[in-house]
Amino acid sequence: MTNDYYIREQKIIEKTEIEKELDLIKTIIRTREDLKIANRNFEYAKDDLVDYYTYEIKANQAKLDYLIKLAKAKGIEVDMIHDLKLSLWDEEEAG
Fold first, then answer.
1. Cβ distance 60 to 31 under 8 Å?
2. pTM for this entry
3. pLDDT one digit per residue (tens) for the chain, 95 residues
4. What is the DSSP letter of 74?
5. N-terminal to C-terminal alpha carbon distance within the chain
6. What is the DSSP letter of 75?
7. Secondary structure element (H or E) that encloses residue 2, with its range
8. Which of 22, 42, 8 is nearest to 85 (CA)?
9. Is 89 in contact with 30 (CB distance < 8 Å)?
């Protein structure tokens, strides 16, 4: 097998710092929502699903902790995350 297999067809465009920060904030918002859903589902889980939602909660919490640590390192504040969440909701309702 030659290295030709691994050559990209298109050049990948780098994101700007602002785009990276917006992606990080969106991921934090999505992960928080996933964590809330997992907690709600855990409340009604039975049998083997209790274990499943326990692991899902732990995984989402670990992911959220990591993302928040990244956001703090970049100087992103909770207010910015909250403001973006509200603006995203407004966009979804309008369109």
1. yes
2. 0.70
3. 455 565 655 555 788 888 888 889 889 989 999 999 999 999 999 999 999 999 999 999 999 999 999 999 988 876 766 666 666 665 665 65
4. T
5. 48
6. T
7. none
8. 22
9. no
